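Researcher: Good morning. I'm working through a list of sequences from a screen, and I'd like to move beyond sequence-only analysis. For each chain I'm collecting a predicted structure so we can compare shapes side by side. This is the next one on the list. No need for commentary yet; just the structure.
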Amino acid sequence: VEGKHDAELVEKVWGADLRVAGVVVEMLDGVDDLAGAIRDFAPSPQRRMGVLVDHLVPGTKEWRVVEQARAVQPYAAHVLVVGHPYVDVWQSVKPQRLGMDAWPVIPRGTSWKVGIAAHLGWPHSTQRDLAMAWRRILGAVDSYADLEPELLGRVEELIDFVTAPVWPALGVGPDATLTATPTRPLLRAESSAAGV
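Model: Good morning. Structure tokens for this chain:
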């Protein structure tokens, strides 16, 4: 995932299921060198890499970086990079969980996180204040139901990709159809291949 807050949110909601599936969530500290991170990880059919990116919207800097990273060879077939439309992962938490009808629009020139904390009436003048604001937002999340579908879908897509079984003898790989249930997502694979 792109940053610390993304990692903490994914861990809180999906962590137990990911550990059962043998998936590790790592923080990238931004995506400016995503191609380098892909080369360092060296994905393969048995060791796939999924990356979640904030604010992945056509025409943005993130979009251009991701398009270049998606082409890194020989790894491209074993990497899936997806994103959500939010400026920050904070916005993927349903605003109702924080007593709002919608996330406010923060004026250009104002730090988004500072603007959100100020709107909520929370301290916002230091990095520590913003860290505490995130703790409060994360604390409002109890389950998948507290997150917006745009984030849920992307994370589930990544989990599908990195946990898909590889059964070369049957010709089934990462593109196999996976089935999720609300309590144990994406841990059972289904395929139309004979014998599966």
